[in-house]
Design goal:
Alpha-Beta Plaits, alpha+beta, 4-stranded antiparallel β-sheet, 8 helices, Structural Genomics Hypothetical 15.5 Kd Protein In mrcA-pckA Intergenic Region, Chain A, 9-stranded mixed β-sheet
Length: 357
């Protein structure tokens, strides 16, 4: 026996004499705003074997981006809890100790030169803390010092590397003995002079080298030949030379000096011999190249061969709050008093970056 249709939610029964709608394979249309639509359900079908359709959930399921990511597996160490001495990646720890850049640290690890707690590493996916025993080439990893930057007036006739295959004198051989272990921010070639930044933090050096940092490098150039300002203005759009694309360059003609001219150039890249190649493309022969600034840091009247520390608060202001906090430069000045102390016996190193200009 057919059961009567259940009353609707409004409490009304179907009109007499009208048979109930038979179920069909196609869902009957519903009136907008009807009781069934308001309830989020279709009309009830006959038969107890037909399962009821579940209502549409109020919130969609979490998208792929909202799902938690699996945690990275790392080599277990005895690193302590988070805090001022929280665990950090081994490459970062080596860079903070001033040994090398993070990229170089990864190469050293691949070469089997690094061990942690007696175990030789074969991957940089390892975190270390203050209680871990880290050895590089069999020697303990030096304690990390707060990041610092020095201004150095590089003279001509020095290479920006630790060891030169040709036996030429290096920048690091000429640095004062009281300077701690440092690396250079980028490089200047053998005959280029002027401002070279030095730091004891490999990660900071890498950050300052990147064109994405947006810091201008300014140069004073003496070159033999002639060029007009109109030709120099075209460099603002960049230039391609022998298949190499160079970014925008600001160039100004300053003065004439016999057969030479003096120019000021500003660029944001540090490609190998970039200034010389661009000016040679314009028919000029560079015979003196001086870097006078790197970002906000100026050469000013610093004498050739002289080194001068930059105050930590100045570094923090120039790097911005996020990077300053990451490097610990937002903490009270703990290392300012150590700037004049001797740090004998620490071997300076050079990064594997490109040689500029």
């Amino acid at each position: 026996m057919r059961k009567p249709n259940p009353p609707s939610r409004t409490g009304q029964r179907p009109a007499a004499g009208k048979p109930a709608t038979k179920p069909s394979g196609r869902r009957p249309a519903q009136r907008a705003g009807g009781a069934d639509a308001a309830a989020g359900q279709g009309p009830k079908k006959h038969g107890s074997d037909t399962p009821k359709k579940k209502p549409v959930p109020d919130k969609p399921k979490a998208s792929f981006k909202q799902r938690p990511r699996p945690q990275r597996k790392t080599v277990p160490t005895t690193a302590g809890p988070s805090g001022p001495e929280a665990p950090m990646r081994i490459a970062k720890a080596m860079a903070r100790a001033g040994l090398c850049s993070r990229r170089e640290a990864e190469r050293w690890i691949a070469d089997g030169r690094v061990s942690v707690n007696g175990r030789r590493l074969d991957t940089p996916a390892c975190e270390v803390g203050p209680t871990d025993k880290v050895l590089v080439d069999g020697k303990p990893l030096p304690a990390a010092e707060p990041p610092r930057i020095w201004r150095y007036h590089k003279p001509r006739g020095l290479v920006t590397t630790h060891a030169d295959p040709e036996g030429r004198p290096t920048v690091f051989e000429k640095l004062p003995a009281e300077l701690p272990r440092v690396i250079s921010v980028g490089r200047l070639d053998f005959n280029t002079e002027g401002l070279l930044l030095l730091t004891n933090d490999g990660g900071l050096a890498r950050h300052l080298e990147l064109p994405a940092t947006g810091w201008l490098r300014r140069y004073r150039v003496r070159a033999h030949g002639r060029v007009d300002q109109a030709a120099l203005d075209k460099l603002k759009d960049g230039i391609e030379i022998d298949g190499v694309r160079y970014g925008p360059v600001e160039a100004a003609l300053d003065s004439l000096q016999g057969g030479n001219i003096w120019l000021t150039l500003a660029l944001r890249e540090g490609k190998n011999r970039e200034v010389r190649r661009i000016l040679e493309h314009l028919g000029l022969q560079v015979n003196r190249l001086i870097r006078i600034s790197y970002g906000p840091f100026q050469l000013l009247d610093l004498k050739p061969g002289a080194v001068e520390p930059i105050k930590r608060r100045v570094i923090a202001d120039q790097l911005g709050p996020r990077l300053a906090a990451e490097l610990g430069l937002d903490r009270p000045d703990l290392a300012e008093a150590r700037l004049g102390r001797g740090h004998q016996g620490r071997k300076p190193t050079a990064p594997g970056g490109r040689e500029e200009q």
